[in-house]
TrEMBL record:
InterPro entries: AAA_GajA/Old/RecF-like, Bact_Antivir_Def_Nuclease, P-loop_NTPase. Residues 24-106 form the Endonuclease GajA/Old nuclease/RecF-like AAA domain. The lineage of its organism: unclassified sequences, metagenomes, ecological metagenomes. Pfam families: AAA_15 (PF13175). This is Endonuclease GajA/Old nuclease/RecF-like AAA domain-containing protein.
């Protein structure tokens, strides 16, 4: 709730939002507002339900957010958008730990790190660029000798 832009990015990735009506979870499409039961929704929408709930109701600065293969069932463009969302979470003070087989996610995070290092040469800086010092300190803390 403190970062509505992050919630909006997530809504854009999944193409709608989750709602609960009389104890049932629905997915409301962004384009026309049509409400679908979860079993009528896409596999990507179903697989990201927990992420959506966490972001909307639980996420707090300092949390360690661990997600396994977030790219499952996502179009490559949305995999890149999800990587940018993770960068925004890091910049908002969350620690994000991802396991992935997606070249798209890895390349996007790498690109964001490189852009952050070169930001003094850019005229427009996207908010999703990862703060390099945060990532390097986290990487150092998880490296195994």
């Amino acid at each position: 709730k403190e970062h509505p832009d992050i919630l909006n990015k997530f809504t854009d990735i999944i193409g709608g939002k989750y709602t609960v009506v009389r104890g049932s979870v629905y997915f409301s499409l962004k384009q026309d507002g049509k409400r679908l039961l979860m079993n009528e929704s896409s596999s990507a929408v179903r697989s990201l339900l927990d992420v959506g709930f966490y972001l909307r109701h639980c996420a707090q600065k300092g949390d360690l957010f661990i997600i396994d293969e977030p790219e499952l069932n996502l179009h490559p463009e949305n995999q890149c958008r999800l990587a940018r969302l993770f960068a925004c979470l890091v910049n908002a003070g969350l620690k994000v730990f991802i396991t992935t087989h997606s070249d798209y996610i890895v390349k996007e995070i790498n690109t964001l790190l490189m852009l952050k290092q070169k930001k003094k040469h850019l005229t427009h800086i996207p908010t999703s660029i990862i703060h390099y010092h945060i990532i390097t300190s986290l990487l150092k803390s998880i490296c195994v000798d």
